[in-house]
Structure formats: structure tokens, C-alpha cells
Amino acid sequence: MTDQEISPAAPGPAPAPRPTRGAARCAVAALALAGIAWAARAVWHLRLSLAGQPASGPPDQGGGTHRPLTALEDSYHQVASLSAVVTAGCAVVFLLWLDRMRDNARALSGTEPRYGSFWFFLGWIVPVANLWIPRGVVADVHRAVFPERRLPAVVNWWWGLWLAGLAGGAGILYSDDTDEIIARAYTDVLPLLAADLLLVAAAAAAAVVVLTLTAAQREHIEGRGY
User: Could you give the CA distance from residue 221 to residue 210 in angstroms, rounded to a whole number?
Assistant: First the structure.
């Protein structure tokens, strides 16, 4: 056997980074729609509060009994359903952008992400872990490429606003159904409005995160001649 036959194969070239601008634009557009959807919920929460609870009481009368909805309550059901669909779609588009950014960070740094695929997808919904892992996944994308730089402050602003909005009880973190949220809008609307506005602000901050991290990574890629 010759030396040529037993010598190890030379490592192949590192994979080229994937384009991210299109994914970033889609993510920003999805976040804008999500912000509009939560702003619409805030408007309907305020409308319900100003209209006041009907004399017949809340929609859920207890004991499995529900009275017929008013026109305003029925329209809130539609707004709430639409906002849920928009939010779910936004989450998918955001994760597609983040997955592409993560692939590029791996290619540019030559290191594996701190959080594997399990936490990348399920870290958003696993109780307790979802208080820090999603932020960690986003931060890891930046630090893998720029270990010497501080994490952009907007990442912390985004995550703080998101957690505060969830804690406000707008129906994401809590298990209240739509009729229960309507009853809360009649009796104690301020926590709902605060949560809505915090989530709108979180969507705006997330859009800035997308633009900031994408621009930094793109500048780094172009500097390396890709």
C-alpha cells in the first residue's frame, strides 16, 4: 500500500454562507403584521371596556352555560382568532430566519451552536426553560461570529418586552379562553391593554434585532470575500 493510499483525505472547503436578506425581510414583515394584530386586540379590549358588560353578565355564565354573544363580542372572537394565526405564522417565519443565521454562524465560526435542534424549536414552549433559552439561541448567533463584541442591547430589550407581555396575561401565557378574556376586559382591562402594548413593542424590537444581526453578519461575510 502506498503512502498516497493511506494518507488522510484533505478536508473539504467550508460551506458557503446562505443568503439572509430575503429571510430577514420576510421576518420583519411578519413581525410588523404581528404587531398590527396585537394592536387590534388592544383596540377591541378597549372597546369592550368602554361598552361595559351587558346586564345578562359575561359570555360564560358558568356550569357550561354560555349566553349569545353580542356583535362586539363576536367581532372580538374574529380578531382574536386572526391574531393567533398571524402570531403563529410570524413565529414560523422568525424561526426560518434564525435557522439560516445559525447555519451561517456555524459555517463562519467552525463551532457548533450552544443549543441543539431540540432547544432551538422547543425551547420556546418548555416551561421555565422558555424564560431564557430563546434569547440564548439568538445571542449565540451573534457571539459565535463576533465573540469580541458586546451583544446588541436591542436583544435584551426585545426579550424583556416579550416576557413582560406574556406575564401581563394577554392570553398567551395563561390558559384563559376568549370568553374569559372578554369578561376580564369588562372588569379589569388595564392589564390586558398593558400586555397588548408590551407585545407590540416586543414585535418592533424583534424587527430591529433581525435587521441588526443580519446586517452585522452580512458585513462580516462580505469582508471575508464570499
Answer: 16
Contact predicate 115/30, CB 8 Å: no
More confident residue, 220 or 28: 28
Measured CA to CA, the distance from residue 198 to residue 202 in angstroms comes to: 6
Mean pLDDT of 192-199: 94
Q: Are 199 and 162 in contact (CB under 8 A)?
A: yes
Q: Is 7 helix (H, G, I), strand (E, B) or coil?
A: coil
C-alpha span between 141 and 18 (Å, rounded): 14
**The residue to which cell 435584551 is assigned:** 156
Look at residues 212, 206, 220 and name the one whose alpha carbon lies nearest to residue 27.
Answer: 206
> What letter does residue 174 receive in the DSSP assignment?
S
Distance CA 156, CA 26 (A): 22
Q: Which three cell numbers stand for residue 177?
A: 379562553
Residues in the chain: 226
Residue 215, all three cell numbers: 446586517
* Orientation angle between helical segments 189-223 and 71-109, nearest 10 degrees: 30
> 62 with 9: CB under 8 angstroms?
no
pLDDT for position 226 = 57
| pLDDT tens figures, 131-151 | 999 999 999 999 999 988 899
